[in-house]
Specification:
The complex is a heterodimer of chains A (490) and B (119). Chain A has 490 residues and is of the alpha/beta class. Chain A has a domain of 277 residues: Amidase signature (AS) domain (Amidase signature (AS) enzymes, Alpha-Beta Complex). Chain A contains 15 helices and eleven strands. In chain A, strand 7, helix 8 and strand 8 form a beta-alpha-beta unit. In chain A, helix 7 packs antiparallel against helix 15. Chain A is globular and about 65 Å long. The chains are: A alpha/beta (490), B mainly alpha (119).
């Protein structure tokens, strides 16, 4: 039998239902791997475990399997990005501000995956409040890329991507505000999808930029992402005011649809000077495979691709500065020890609780929303945001899906951008446009680039076309073995 | 619209070097106060340099003609009308005061404690 940690979610779900192994055995196996990884030589992916809670969930899953009432993913282990609040585990959002915070409730995504029978192994490291592209902004230490421990795993869902690549869990949740599912999936050689904004509930996802934040699954295959996404999506009308009234779907139904006649739009702006040659070669290789499967490549233009950087880095910090005002040392989280009055308590608490990148974004956001600057920055950015979304609708008149690189280069070295926050921002160029437009996007392994590091192919679909993206990704994975490669020693 | 001099310059003539936004130390102090962030002097200076570095890439945005374009808040508004829902104004959650206050820094008799505000 394949080792449990090399199995996909689909394999495990089938094995559990056939009683080839139990949910308890699976939970013990992954807990042991997670515990071993929490040593200093590990990847740093996990922030918290609670073996008693995990084993209790597994026992309940075994009972449902025995009783014949198993959910679709009964007994399959996963872990959650630490931006999702959980009743059974502490939740920190990667911030000192929330060290030790215990939520009284589960996020909707956590609840829905538990309803499908999944067992939670623990909580995964991420950039502080999901602000970052390398997972180096976590207050609890950087995460190492399992393909090369001297490199970043990407961010902000870096712990999720690294844990999956290192076979510590078969699947995980992530969140994507400006690329935080797609880019770490690309850097770690796994598969991840961000659904259409509004399809997955934001309830219990600690808010960063509310008009952009969207949760989604990360796993090793498109089929596994489809299984999880089917459980995640659907309206949450009473708890998320931006949740759309779009019914849940079984995203596995059209995985095998024929790609003959599929028109793949290739945006010229994604293949310019800024794209590293090794990444381009890998992306071209994946596109060639898709043409062999019957797709045709259509040149398109997304003329405001570069503008998406300033637009995003105005809108996201503006919304963050508002969302993060709740961290004031009163109702939850850190409170400074030394202060003279209420105002100095707020100021000291926030100075001690937030890391440098979060402070920069709060400052930028506060400034662009302040009197006299709101129209020039925030409103202007929201107007260009609409133009960017309209550009996509123009493009989708000529093609069915859009494809290109996820990031301009492979995972960089830890510490490489430490003194240059803008360098990280610029590297988000290919994921920001779909984020601003609220479109579904995914990253699929497309082989390897420089230093043997993984490269992802980005697929962007029109609104609510997640099934089509997963179909394209699945057919690519049936024809190639890039997604089956694993880091040495894992 | 109420713009201060530097923002007005920025809008009217996006390409002139004078439009390059540059925050001074007093402005950093003002923003930090609005954001309720205590910044040490060295930290404030580093913040100023980094924010000015960032705003150099924001300049490109100011050159875009957005006359007649509606700002977009919910992205799916690109293809359909999106109305934010209001739920009925009735209590939907059970009282979980104890659980909700478990992570509070200072609580007494079910109340959140803050430093004295009124003498």
């Amino acid at each position: 039998m394949t080792q449990l940690h090399d199995m996909t979610v689909a394999d495990m779900a089938a094995g559990l239902k056939a009683k080839r192994f139990s949910a308890t055995e699976a939970a013990q196996h992954f807990l042991a791997r997670a515990q071993a990884d929490m040593q200093p030589t590990g990847t740093g992916s996990f922030l918290a475990l609670n073996p008693d809670a995990t084993l209790a969930q597994a026992k309940a899953a075994d009972a449902r399997i025995a009783a014949g009432t198993a959910g679709a993913l009964e007994g399959v282990p996963l872990a959650h990005k630490d931006i999702f609040v959980t009743r059974d585990f502490p939740t920190t959002a990667g911030s000192r501000m929330l060290a030790g915070y215990q939520s009284p409730f589960d996020a909707t995504l956590v609840q829905r995956l538990a309803d499908a029978g999944m067992v939670t192994v623990g909580k995964l490291n991420c950039d502080e409040f999901a602000m970052g592209s390398g997972n180096e902004n976590s207050a609890f230490g950087a995460v190492k890329n399992p393909w090369d421990a001297s490199r970043v795993p990407g961010g902000s869902s870096g712990g999720s991507a690294a844990a999956i690549a290192a076979r510590l869990v078969p699947a995980a949740t992530g969140t994507d505000t400006g690329g935080s599912i797609r880019q770490p999936a690309s850097f770690c050689g796994i598969t991840g999808i961000k659904p259409t904004y509004g399809r997955a509930s934001r309830y219990g996802m600690i808010a960063f930029a509310s008009s952009l934040d969207q949760g989604g699954p990360m796993a090793r295959t498109a089929e596994d992402c489809a299984l999880l996404l089917s459980a995640i999506c659907g309206p949450d009308p009473d708890r998320d005011s931006t949740s759309l009234d779009v019914p849940a779907e079984d995203f596995t139904l059209s995985l095998n649809a024929d790609l003959k006649g599929l028109r793949i739009g290739i945006p010229a702006e994604f293949f310019g000077e800024g794209l590293a040659a090794d990444v381009r070669a890998a992306v071209d290789g994946a596109l060639a495979e898709l043409t062999k499967l019957g797709a045709t490549l259509v040149p398109i233009s997304l003329p405001r691709t570069e503008l998406s950087i300033p637009v995003y880095y105005i809108i996201a910090p503006a919304e963050a500065s508002s969302n993060l005002s709740r961290f004031d040392g009163v109702k939850f989280g850190h409170r400074a020890k030394d202060f003279t009055d209420l105002e100095s308590m707020y100021k000291q608490t926030r100075a001690e609780g937030f890391g440098p990148e979060v402070k920069r974004r709060i400052m930028t956001g506060t400034y662009v929303l302040s009197h006299g600057y709101y129209d020039a920055y925030y409103l202007q950015a929201q107007k260009i945001r609409r133009m960017i979304a309209d550009d996509f609708q123009q493009a989708f008149q000529q093609c069915d899906v859009i494809a290109g690189p996820v990031a301009p280069k492979v995972a960089w070295k830890l510490g490489e951008n430490a003194n240059d926050p803008v360098a990280d921002y610029l590297a988000d160029i290919f994921t920001l446009p779909a984020s601003l437009a609220g479109l579904p996007g995914m990253s699929v392994p497309a082989g390897f680039g420089a230093h043997g590091m993984p490269v992802g192919l980005q697929l962007i679909g029109n609104y609510f076309k997640e099934a089509q993206l997963l179909n394209v990704a699945h057919r690519l994975q049936q024809a190639t073995d890039w997604h089956l490669q694993k880091p040495k020693g894992m | 619209m109420c713009l201060n001099a530097s923002a007005r310059r920025l809008l009217s003539n996006p390409f002139s070097p004078a439009s390059l936004m540059s925050l001074n130390p007093q402005e950093i102090d003002r923003i930090a106060h609005l954001a309720r962030l205590a910044l040490q002097p060295a930290e404030a200076e580093r913040m100023r340099e980094q924010m000015n570095g960032f705003f150099s890439i924001v300049e490109a945005m100011q050159a875009v003609d957005t006359a007649g374009i509606e700002p977009m808040a919910h992205p799916v508004a690109a293809i359909q009308d999106v109305a934010l829902r209001l739920r009925d104004d009735v209590a939907s959650e059970p009282n979980q005061r104890e659980a909700n206050q478990r992570s509070a820094p200072a609580v007494d008799s079910g109340l959140f404690l803050v430093p004295k505000v009124i003498e």
